[in-house]
Amino acid sequence: MPKPPLAEFVDDRSLDGSIGLLRRISPAWVDFEDPDGAGKPRIRGPAFQRHTIKVAQQYGYSDRCMSLGLEEGVLQAGGLDKMLANWSGYGLARVTAADLRETSFGLQRAPEPDLGEPWHVVAFALGSSNAAKKAQGVLAARAELLIPPTRP
Amino acid sequence: MSLANDDVRFLTSRDLSPSNVYRGDPNQKFLSLEDRESVRQDEDEWTYQTTLRIKEFGLLSQGWDSYGAPDIGHQAISRAIELVRTFASLPLRPFVAPTSEGGVEFEWSMGEHARLSVDIDEVGQIEVFYVLPDGREWSGSLGSEPDDLRGIYVELLEARPR
Hints:
The structure holds two protein chains of two kinds. Chain A is an alpha+beta fold. Helix content of chain A is 21%, strand content 24%. Chain A contains four helices and eight strands, in the order βββαβαβαββαβ. Chain A has helices at residues 53-58, 71-76, 97-102, 129-142, and strands at 20-25, 30-31, 42-43, 66-70, 91-96, 105-109, 120-125, 144-147. In chain A, the strands form two sheets. Chain A has a six-stranded antiparallel sheet with strand order 6-7-4-1-5-8. Chain A has a two-stranded antiparallel ribbon with strand order 2-3. By secondary structure, chain B is of the alpha+beta class. Chain B is 29% helix and 17% strand. In chain B, helix 2 runs antiparallel to helix 3 (74-87). Chain B is globular, with a radius of gyration of 16 Å.
């Protein structure tokens, strides 16, 4: 049963710039042939796409947004692996709240205890769709790959 | 290396139109062994591997991205395979990935502020996005872009770290 839509996204300024936010990374979103300076597969822009409006609404959100995990919450829940519990082979990347705000995103806590993700946060675009496309490249370049996905 | 527009044999809207590229079979999800051999015989390794990779996007089921994404549209896969042969002639070939919108994206990225993407949506429509180090950026339907894509590509290549 879909939840009622959120009335409006509100940027939660209590999520200050230094806060870490985690994103699951599909193996299809990294370039295993072009590793970064640390020898890890390079994260590419598609890793930071927003939900389609249809999917966003199914989750109960009023507009397109991107799902992330609050690093502190994930660690308190038992560690980074908790966020990959049902996603064998997927990786985990870290960006900061500042990275997201600098790319025209606002942030809102959106706990999903029923989905096992009490740490869930959504990033919603404050700018144009152009800004969201531009953000993909910036976030991919800035993201730290904490756990690389497994090569298929 | 400096490239002139004439060195880049691709990326006009006309080059990317369906009538000018290889036509794939939109109903075929997998490469048969015969198909694989056929591709391997007349294409280079990048074309072979990339075509195979795109075909495999058809195996992704709903929710594949861990965030509820739809599966990848057959028309997107077909159109992407068409474009692989076009992009194979480029000096720098793109990264290709499935999108959370059920499409396929070709991406050239040179760091935070130099990026070109060719996005194929789930029904095969193409959108282009670029951002360049001088701040120019644009996104929209293929064919309506204000700049010659060959020139954009050359500028992107020149933004590569040396």
